[in-house]
Amino acid sequence: MPASPPAPERVLQRLDWEVVRKLDGLLQGEYRSLFRGPGVDLAGLREYQPGDDTRYIDWNVTARTTIPYVREFQEDREITAWFLLDMSPSVDFGTVADGRLKRTVLVDFVATLARVLTRRGNRIGAIVYGTGTAETIPVASGRPAVLRLLERLLAQPMLTSAPPTDLADLLENGLRTIRRRSLVVIVSDFISAPGWEGRLHLLNQRHELLAVRLVDPRELTLPDVGVVVIADAETGEQLEVDTGDRRFRERFAAAAVEREAATGAALRHAGVDGVTLSTEDDLVRAIVRMATERRRRRTHA
To answer: 46: which of 204, 233, 279, 284 lies 20 to 30 Å off by Cα?
Structure first.
């Protein structure tokens, strides 16, 4: 009896069949709207027009001429994509019927994007944040690069507690490591100590960013299921609460709304495209939605 393929190979085979094949049909090759942004080769300068992205204003030329000028870029045929991945304890949470965790969604989503990118000759790298440290997976191309990334993600241990997550560490690693202008995909639940917003803004000035927020429905609302024990995914601290208390559920929901609003505001302030990926989502539909939203934003920019 032949031996079964290693876990990374099995995951990639499943995603090729269940996700990538369907995306090819639904997007009909229009992955450009999801992945491709301004290139890295300067094509020239022109006068600023209302609606232009202010990030591309050439301030040196503008100062000399007193007329705003923007840089235009020639798109590369190939791009380099970096995944900045938050695999801290809070991603090991999920309450949907099939038991999917935010971690599971992260792995499938990243592997799918990595597979689509490398099939078109692009290169991928990653920085994985887990227990207060960040590990860099160097840039590479082809199917072996996807399998190496998958192997690393599948080997990430599930922790019951760890030091509080600080996304600033992950973003700072990105700033130090990624030198050439790239597509940078940040995947996190953004449950973190404050102070990461400034580094996100700096990354967005240097690269094209896509921020993917992992969520689970029970992080937003609590059902009435009586007395339950709630554990802090980051510290492991446990607290017994009565979900039958309507006022408690309302306070919980209000706090969740406030947290979501604060995260959304931080992303918008940094000028970053932010999309939400839930443990309830069908991955194919979610990626098509992302591509549609990014295409719409660029059309109306």
So the answer is: 204
